[in-house]
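As practice, study what follows.
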Amino acid sequence: GEGVGTDASNQPPSKSRPLPDFSAFIHSEPLAGGYGQTANAARAAAPVVTPDISDDGDAAASPSGTPRRPGTCRKAVRPRAVKPKLDMVGSGSSGGENGGQAFLAPPLNDAETSSDLVTSTPTKKKRKISTKSPRKKVGSRRKRQRIEPGTLNPPEGWEDVYELVRELRSDRSAPVDTDGGHALSEREQGEDVRRFQVLIALMLSSQTKDAVVGETMRALQRHGLTVGNIRNTSHEDLNKLIRKVGFHNNKTKYIKKACDILAEQYSGDIPPTAKDMMDLPGVGPKMAYIIESEAFGTTTGIGVDTHMHRMFNDLGWVKSTNPEGTREQLEGWLPREKWAEVNVLWVGIGQETQQQKEKALRKALDCSRPADALRLIRRLRLNVEKEAKKFGLKDEVERATSRGK
């Protein structure tokens, strides 16, 4: 320790904190790397001081022979939150006992380090943020409330439009009037056979034009359209008989399964209610309500197809996204005595405005309210001006329109 410190008797009093006792460190053998070595090397070379207080209060000697300082703990614990730093002692003008010389001091023990010397930065507890979307409670979605019949206010002016449609459909010349399910059954075969044929005609009608349904029904009737005969007909032969209708492969399976159910559960007849009919394969609400009305003469609902759904939304009578929604809303305000006729009536005018445009245009010009009729078929998506020009009716349409203004 000869080159470490100088005489500090002439130095002014140091304003820095008192230095701890490093006598044991200073008078020990010089470090191999000199006093300019790194802090880690200095700490590794420094003697480990683990004092023990004897009964008489004096510091006991350590096994290495180095006296232990009194007042220190047995186990030296290094602070975990502070990295080792170089303690530059005696630097600058303060000098102290070291006369301005700088040297590396070993790190202080916990017992020698007061709270004002070593402060650990408190770590903030990180909040765990979940990236998963919250689970929805099962059954939390509210069930849509069903619209009960007679609970809605009818649209303004609907009766005038409805009566105009009845006038335009008074001739009953649309395809549905001759090839619809109600018109194709063989009444002379008995009531149970007639009801069964109404069921089959409606099962064939989905995604198929009425003319094709009529042709297929007549082929089945020549083959023998009864429950027993269809059960005995092979799947392949039945599929050939109905091959012209849409989705004939599925309909073949549905008809075969339905015949088995009718024979086993209803003695060859059809179910008596629309609700029971919906249990048959391939039978939905639209078919069931029409079959119930045509087969048994009772009407508990309105059969609404996609064309009726489109027309009633075009007229603003309902506001729905599917035929079932249209049916519920229509039943909510339409008088019950009109439920039985509404399907055939409106399906027919829809067929005429889309498939028989010249006839629909001439009927509108010849009715008692031509201007209103022209406005109606326009709303049903018939291009009046284009078709009038095509069929040489432009002048008549212009005259009828001007009279209605």
In short: The beta strands are 87-89, 103-105. The chain has 18 helices and two strands. Residues 254 and 281 are 5 Å apart (CA to CA). The mean pLDDT is 80.
